[in-house]
Structures are given as C-alpha cells and as structure tokens.
Design goal:
Elements (H helix, E strand, L loop, with lengths): L2 E5 L5 E5 L4 H10 L6 E5 L5 H13 L2 E4 L5 E4 L7 E2 L1 H4 L9 H8 L1 E5 L12 H9 L3 E5 L2 E5 L7 E3 L5 H11 L5 E5 L5 H12 L3 E3 L5 E5 L8 E3 L4 H13 L3 E5 L7 H9 L3 E5 L2 E5 L8 E3 L11 H8 L5 E5 L8 H8 L3 E5 L2 E5 L8 E3 L3 H13 L3 E5 L2 H4 L5 H7 L3 E5 L7
Parallel strand pairs: 2-15, 3-14, 6-7, 10-11, 18-19, 22-23
Antiparallel strand pairs: 1-23, 1-24, 3-5, 4-5, 7-9, 8-9, 11-13, 12-13, 15-17, 16-17, 19-21, 20-21
Bound molecules: uridine-diphosphate-N-acetylglucosamine.
Uridine-diphosphate-N-acetylglucosamine binds next to α1, α5 and α6.
Length: 423
Amino acid sequence: MDRIIVEGGVPLKGEVSVSGSKNAALPILMATVLTKEPVIVRNVPRVRDVFTSLQLLEGLGAQCRWLGDHDVEVHAAKITSHEAPYELVKTMRASFVVLGPLLARTGRARVSTPGGCAIGARPVNLHISGIRQLGARVQLRFGYVEAHGERLVGARMWLDAPSVGATQNIMMAAVMAKGRTLIENAAREPEVQDLAKMLNSMGARISGAGSHVIEIEGASHLHGTDHSVIPDRIEAGSLMAAAAITGGDVLIRNAPVDQLDSVIAKLREAAVQIENTAAGLRVQRGVALKPVELRTLPYPGFPTDLQAQLMALLSIGDGTSIITETIFENRFMHALELLRMGADIAMKGATAVIRGVPHLSGAPVMATDLRASVSLVIAGLAADDVTDVGRVYHLDRGYEALEQKLASLGARIERVKGTSVQP
Ligand code: UD1
C-alpha cells in the first residue's frame, strides 16, 4: 500500500490547475451506454474511479479508448452483458448509476447493491423507487438489483431526499421513456446539471436541471456526442484549504467559482483572503484563522465533500469552530486521526466542536475515505515535522496527481510506494 509523507511548515506559493470533476465524469461515462454511437468525453480526470468505470463499461461490451491524457471515447455499439458485478460496485458505489442507462438501453439490468460505506449506510432505496415508478419491475436477489422494463413510461415523482445519485439514475432511466417524467425535490448539484447538459447534447429533452424540479420529455433514441466535463469544485475547495492552512498565496486556475459560493463565504469568514481574478481564484492568508460555524447541506449549501478539509483547517483556528454534518451519519472519521495530530475536537452526534490549537504535530495517520484522506494531507502541510498518511488508495480514487500539484506549490510531499495489497 502506498503512503504519502508530508513535511509540514512550507507556505504554499504559485499556480495550480483544477482537473475535471470526478463526480461529474462518473455518471457521464455511464450515460454513454444510452447510445449505439461513439461518445467522446473530455476533461476526464485520471483517477481510479474513472478507471473502474471504464472497466465496468468494457464488461458491458463497450469499447473504451483514451484519445489523449484526459479525453476518452466510449463506443457501446453492442451491449453484451447486463450486469455490474459486486467486485466492481463494492469498490465504487457510483457504479450503481449504471442501472438507469442500462435499463433504458436494453430493457434489463442486474446491478450489485453497493452495501455500506465508511461514512454512512448510504441506501439506494430512492434509486429503486424512482425506477419502479417508471414502470420497471425491480427485485432484489442474491445481493443484486434486477430490473426489467422493455418500455419505461414517464411518471411524476417526489424524492424523499434530494439524492445526487438517485436523481442521476432516474434521469438516465427516463430519457427514452414514453412521455414526460417530473422529478420533484431533485438534487441541484452542478454534477447533475453537467449530466443533463451531456444528455441533451445526445438528443435528450431535459429541463430544470439545477432546480428542484427536473422535467424529462422522453426521446425515441439518443445519439453520440462530444462533451467536456466541468472542473472539480471539490478539488478546487481542497486546494483552497491547503493554501489557507499553510498561510500561503496560491492562484487556482480553472476553479468553478460560481459553484463555490458557500465555500468562499465560509473561508472569508475564517479570514482567508479570496480574490476572483481573470487568471483564477487567488487564495491567501496572512492573519490567524477566525473560528466559524458551518453546516453541510445539499447544493448550493456547504458541501459535505469539503467538511473534512475545513475541519483540518479550523483545527488551527484562533477560537472554537462548530461543524454540523447533515448529509452522512458517520462522516467524522478524520477527526479521530486529527486528534492524533494534536487537534482538539469533541464530537457529539452530528456536531463537532473544534477548539483551535496553535500547532498540529506530525504523526502516522490513516485515511478512511476519499475526503478524509485529503484532509489528513492538508493537516500534514501545516503540522510540525512529518505526517505519514497511510491507505492513500482512498485518495487515488478521486484526486489526480495531488502530490505533484502540491509539490509544484512548494510542499515537501512524496509518495512512498508499497505493495498493491489492500485490506
Ligand atoms: C454523491 C457524491 C458524493 C457526495 C454526495 C452528497 C458522487 C459519485 N458522489 O453521492 O461525493 O458526498 O453526493 O453530496 O457524485 N440517500 C437515501 N436513499 C437513497 C440515496 C441517498 O436515503 O436511495 C441519502 C444518503 O444516505 C445520504 C443522502 O441521501 O444521506 C445524500 O446522498 P446522495 O446525494 O445520494 O449521495 P451520492 O449520490 O451517493
């Protein structure tokens, strides 16, 4: 297993670019099975979840090839399998969103249920209920969701929670259904909007993505397209936290500024200077961090995927910050590792009380999930001495070349290669 070794204390300085969004790329790649024609997806980050997605698509019979470093062509001329196997779905929950497009294209799909996750139960009931409401027959057998429906029929439905994955799955199932589908209380995340944009460029008729109600008028068939994925707002936010924790001065090129309002607002409240320039987002910090209160919420609220990074940052703030996690029930695992680095964090249920300390100190720590892993790297950038982050395969699922990007800003960071065995 690889580890990342960080020697803290260097203020980050320079310019860095944000990669394409992992969370936008994954459902977009799954959407390529909706057509027999080739689809080109550009600005795809080279991260493990993308490689897993391509493996999944190849298993269904699609041909995938890289056209350059970040452009992929997927050609699903023929679907030869209807199954997303447990071995892949268990490593990447987002595989579950292949259910909708596979069902829409072929009338059947057999997709492993993802099971639990380090950050919470993460059920898929809303995905299944939505697909049933489109007329599919769905049963759960042997750990797999088996769905059948030769001709899906549009329906009006309400999501109990604005789930990102359920909204995407249902949207893709409904694009070729007979008639109109209305998804009420839909997720508004930019990644949902990017998927709708891509589907519309394939001939789908989707309106309202980005609002609470998405309307889908069924189309008879979809064709190929050439779509460029949006930049990764979570990577941008992570880089902002890294710049801020070190008291650095970094220009983040390509940051999707409009999607970062809640994050920029909280960082400014914490006394981080942020300037939106023509060249990118300039993030600087010259004074002590002020404490803040924040609550994770569905978009456009503060993203749960940046909660861990902000906790690392606020752990060296001048005062007491409060973070409430409202999306996932067990998303404070990183706090336990931050404690080992000298942070002062008390947790009760969904709330963490972070009393700022003057310094963190380096320690061997362990990543427990994707965003937790980056928060430990961020903490290490500001800690005394050396932080040794283990289990970085979590980080590799979603961050492209993170060590190289941070090193280019002056960080003393390196990857130590280990065996490829994962527990
Ligand atoms: C996506 C993101 C993930 C992010 C999350 C919330 C991808 C690949 N992943 O995950 O990084 O943290 O959005 O912004 O885009 N829920 C149910 N039933 C369901 C589905 C969800 O109760 O059928 C609940 C979940 O347990 C959770 C909440 O809804 O409490 C939000 O989850 P959801 O938006 O579905 O997250 P994902 O799409 O899995």
